[in-house]
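Exercise 3.2. Students should predict the tertiary structure of the chain below and write it as structure tokens, then compare their answer with the key that follows.

Predict this chain's 3D structure.
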Amino acid sequence: MGRPHLIGRLLERDRRIVIAAMTIAVAACAAFIVSGGGTGMSSIGMTRMTGPAGALIAQTPDMLMPVAWTPGYAAVIFLMWWLMMVAMMVPSVAPVVLLYGALRPERGAAGQIEFLAGYLCIWALFSLAATAVQVMLTASGLLSAMFMSVTGAYLGAGLLIGAGLYQLTPLKSACLASCRGPVEALTSHRRTGRAAAFRMGLSHGGYCLGCCWALMVLLFVGGVMNLWWVMAIAVYVAIEKLAPGGDRIARLLGVALILAGLALAARTAGIAWT
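Answer key:
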């Protein structure tokens, strides 16, 4: 009786440590993004200017100010993207981290933190790619340096439609199924060795990236630092992964995004004809 009781106490202690660590990480990253993400611009101020509709609707030509893409500024943008991903994605992956701890109790809190580190490395790679895309779009005049959102309504409509179509693909469904039912993946693809937890985190992060990357691209439509869009996508991701019927919700969102993109394109065409 004594040994099981001790194990239970250790598991509960590790659980509390990991929950506290994830909570602090999310709060710190969220505060950093709200403060402007190191860009020198106020996220709150920009969000007030654009509102829930997003920066694409509110842009004017004078907002296409040039920006000097020095290595230092690119590093700031990468950090902004990565810490934003931490704030947005850790809440939805937290149950999986704790599940890993329950399945591999011998690794303790350290194993769960290593799992989370592997997971966040995948989102660091995404952030690197997003930074590269932002550099190219800004240099070509297709992205506002001020609001970090696309400058053309047709491009915005295309991103909405593309994200909607991806929601309906078998790849999206397969990745979402793995995110919603991680037990099989954590047990059937169990790694061994010192870096086992980290590699498991990488594996789960890969599925999560396959599930959510198109949704994150939509930040280029509403504004990368538009807090309305950041919060909406983060909440939706959690619902899609954790709520009953999340697979059906994903398909419904796909249809809604396609219709929104078509409506934006039609509205833009109507304005052009008047």
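Discussion points: The chain has a mean pLDDT of 87. Residues 2-34 form the longest helix (33 residues).
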